[in-house]
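Researcher: Please predict.
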Amino acid sequence: MALIDNGIYLAGHRAESLRSREETYQALRENAGMAWIGLYRPDATEIRSVASEFDLHPLAVEDALTGHQRAMLERYGSTLFLVLRPARYIDEKEEVEFGELHLFIGEDFVVTVRHAESTTLSRVRHSLEANLPLIAKGPQAVLYSILDEVVDEYAPVIAGLENDIDEIGNQLFDGDPSVSRRIYDLSREVIEFQRAVHPS
């Protein structure tokens, strides 16, 4: 199921948890609040429903549907479209694991589209729901909080890479013959991380 979380927020309070996108659309029309719709790997029908309701630009919709995008920020009229690349470092494998998160930010709505497993958005949503003055600021507060969380997650990735680079230095001077493969693999991870965090 593509719909992960779905709510209407009025003056910072989560007013309703709704079972479908259509219920959210109707509730937003009836109330002056903010809708936050979270989707996970939606199909064309699901994302086009959201696009039709919120008048999302076709190019941004196509990007969100196909995935495999680099980090970027575009403005289409009054809607912002962002692609973020959350990351985490898997120390045992010495690999950086990337997610992909698309955001549509409008005057009274936030639509998030995930293309990979991530706990980032649920943490952000719970944190915001506990901070009424912040979430009462609307979609801009959601955008700020998601960006803050994604960027904060880069610090442990950098620390993991730096630690492994230090270990490689020690291996190199100890004459370990396996170090050349490790250098090659780790340099690929560093390059992939640089590509993911730099905008296209």
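Model: The first helix runs from residue 21 to 30.
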